[in-house]
Amino acid sequence: MRALAGPTATANLNAMTSFAPSLRTSPVRRFTLACLALLALAYGAVLILSAPGWPQIAGLWPISIVGLAGALVASATGVGGGVVFVPVFSVLRESGLLDLGPLQTVGTSFSIQCFGMGVGALTWLNRYYRPGVRPDEIAHRPVVGRVVVMALATGLPALVATQYLAGMNGELAFLLFKLFSIGLGCALIIQLIVLRSPHAERERLESLDHVLILLIGLAGGAATALFSVGIGELLALTLFLRRFPVDICVSTAVIVSAVSVWVGSHYHFEAGHLDWGVLVFAAPAVAAGGFFARRLAHALGGLRLKLMTALWITGSGAALLVL
């Protein structure tokens, strides 16, 4: 018995040692599972509130395609899915295919992004803490954490204050969204031109970066309150122009956007601005898009994907001005 106990104890010790790395990542995994469970519960509530029948299913199932496209763009580039949802919903409204006013369009875009940006943020978070993570990604963790905290420190108060204190004028918000889209699209094109030139990447925050991130939180939070996009887009654009690595730019933008839309959705839920029928079809699609977005970004390449996104944002904003 003693002879058998020795090897058995050694085997158990070796098994525990080999399991130790997974224990170190377990807090992130537990957090991810908890968030996914909350998303599943939220979608269950959406199903109950919507209770879609066959006529609604036949009329709204194409929304799933819009949701998938929006989430792929959002989580792969850091540009919020609202740049896809708001123009498409507006065109469908003008065509008489969807009964959504400007505030309902913004509110529904907020709620859809809760699922897409939420899954996208979890995907990026797990990338930084996965087994076999690269040394450069480990070095990026504290930078990502500081950027997210600083952006949200000013962004969330600006978001909530704009929603509850400034008032929400649907027509004005829609006009500002059109102008914002055109400006953002042009800025992305300029960014692509800058990125094509050789340059050294920066991986440390300087004093100017801290100031810019705090200011972006204020401006982006207010913009997000008005048309469901803004803070993540401005953050990603600024970090790109400041020559930070792509993964830092996109991951911080996605995580900040995810937290912002979850906080901002409460206002629209209270005000009754959500279309549950649209959400019931869009939510699963955007969740899938948020999961596969990073893989799509690597498959297409950053420059090609960003060029397609910039052309869509600029073109859709210009088209909406004509409508």
UniProtKB/TrEMBL annotation:
It comes from the Bacteria. The lineage of its organism: Bacteria, Pseudomonadati, Pseudomonadota, Alphaproteobacteria, Maricaulales. GO terms for cellular component: plasma membrane. The keyword Aminoacyl-tRNA synthetase does not apply. Keywords: Cell membrane, Membrane, Transmembrane, Transmembrane helix. Coiled coil: none annotated. It is a multi-pass membrane protein. Belongs to the 4-toluene sulfonate uptake permease (TSUP) (TC 2.A.102) family. Its main location: membrane. This is Probable membrane transporter protein. The keyword Magnesium does not apply. It holds the Pfam family TauE.
